[in-house]
Amino acid sequence: MHSGRYENRAANIRDAAQKFQRTLDAESIALQILSAAEVRLDHEILSWVAEEQIPYLGQWQGERVMLLELPHSHVPVGADKLVAWLRKQNIRPMIAHPERNKDIMRSIDKLLPLVQLGCLLQVTAGAVAGTFGEYAQVRAAELLARGWVTVLASDAHNMESRPPELEPGRAAAALIVGEEESWQLVRHRPAAIIGADLIAEGS
Ligand SMILES: [Fe+2]
Of 74, 95, 100, 203, which sits with the fewest C-beta atoms within 10 Å of its C-beta? Predict the structure, then answer.
């Protein structure tokens, strides 16, 4: 959901996901699709919340989890105020790919106020593995070392330039946080957020 660019709302996102699910079912592909949205930081979020237009990822400690995207260039003034307001609405923002934000790449302190307000962090697995360049990799490693990262995600866009690869990032993260925590990042915490039972344990 990105005002002026991707005019998505809860209903059309859900409809598209259901259509995709029906296609998978028709092809006997045993994959269950859940949908949510990456929500670009914007003043419109206040009305989207009020109108229940935001699809949430799930729940974390009793709060709804919203995947919040900062602009790539900077951390806007007032982002902390928006996060504090969301927390009051019982919404826990999860910040998408903070390791690729230019302000945060320059100084990790730009992220600290948002972490202190309780934001969860979703780091892109490929960034940990180095596919987004050295600066993003260094920042991703530092976020992991600080224990700030909630989950790793593929952030897959397609099968060519942005394929759905988690394992290289998980393996690279394991060198920083250990094997057990690396599985928390890609299996246990994501499952807890969507309320899923894991059907098979990770190695
Ligand atoms: Fe994004």
Answer: 203
CATH of the domain at 105: 3.20.20.140
Within a 10 A sphere around the Cβ of 189, how many other Cβ atoms?
18
Q: Which of 51, 46, 56 is nearest to 82 (CA)?
A: 46
How many whole angstroms from 97 Cα to the centroid of ligand 1?
7
What distance in Å separates the CA atoms of residue 22 and residue 35, rounded to the nearest whole number?
Answer: 14
H-helix or E-strand spanning residue 60? strand 58-60
What is the domain extent for residue 57? 36-194
Residue 3 forms part of a structural domain:
no
Neighbours of ion ligand 1 (CB under 5 A): 69, 96
How many angstroms is it from 96 CA to the middle of ligand 1? Answer: 6
Please choose, from the candidates 120, 69, 71, 70, the residue with its C-alpha nearest in 3D space to the C-alpha of residue 91.
Answer: 120
pLDDT in tens, 15-59: 999 999 999 999 999 999 999 999 999 999 999 999 999 999 999
Q: What does the pLDDT average to over 123-136?
A: 97
Say what the alpha-carbon torsion angle 189, 195, 197, 202 is, to the nearest 10 degrees. -20
Interval between CA 18 and ligand 1 midpoint (Å): 22
How many domains is the chain partitioned into structurally?
A: 1
Q: Give the sign of the dihedral formed by CA 162, CA 76, CA 120, CA 178.
A: positive
Of all residues in the chain, what percent carry a pLDDT higher than 90?
A: 95
Q: Is residue 130 part of a domain?
A: yes
